[in-house]
């Protein structure tokens, strides 16, 4: 596992929060991950990290859209 930096930890925490919220809504994305770009500075530390949501089937995408719409009050 790559060294944890504040930006990586922020992305891991966000991924975990999103996964927990989706799970409570009955939606499970098959592959959620945290990815970092190449190192941006001389110490090899990335300036940011991204939550990668992966791919999902059409039924899961519809479930996710429904959850978002319910949360948005639509």
Content-based structural category: mainly alpha
Principal-axes geometry comes out as elongated
Portion in beta strands: 5-15%
- On the 0 to 100 scale, the average pLDDT is 85
Q: What is the string of helix and strand elements?
A: HEEH
Cα-to-Cα separation, first versus last residue = 41 Å
Rg for CA atoms: 15 Å
Helical fraction equals 40-55%
Oligomer: single chain
Q: Note the main sheet.
A: 2 strands, antiparallel
Low-confidence segments, ≥5 residues, pLDDT <50? Answer: none
Strand order of the largest sheet: 1-2
User: How many DSSP-defined strands?
Assistant: 2
Q: What is the count of structural domains?
A: 1
DSSP summary: helix tally: 2
Give a description of the structure:
- The chain is mainly alpha-helical.
- It has one domain.
- The chain is built from 2 helices and 2 strands; from the N terminus they run αββα.
- The chain is elongated and about 45 Å long.
- The termini are far apart.
- 3% of the residues are buried.
- The model has no long low-confidence stretch (mean pLDDT 85).
Keywords:
two-stranded antiparallel ribbon, mainly alpha, 2 helices, 74 residues
Q: Topology of this protein?
A:
Layout: H1 6-24, E1 33-35, E2 50-52, H2 58-71
Antiparallel strand pairs: 1-2
Give a short summary of the structure:
With 74 residues, the chain is mainly α. Helices cover 45% and strands 8% of the residues.
């Amino acid at each position: 596992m790559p060294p944890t930096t504040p930006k990586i930890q922020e992305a891991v925490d966000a991924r975990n929060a999103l996964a927990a919220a989706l799970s409570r809504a009955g939606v499970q994305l098959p592959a959620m991950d945290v990815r970092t770009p190449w190192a941006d500075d001389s110490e090899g530390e990335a300036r940011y990290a991204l939550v990668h949501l992966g791919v999902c089937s059409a039924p899961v995408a519809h479930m996710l859209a429904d959850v978002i719409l319910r949360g948005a009050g639509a």
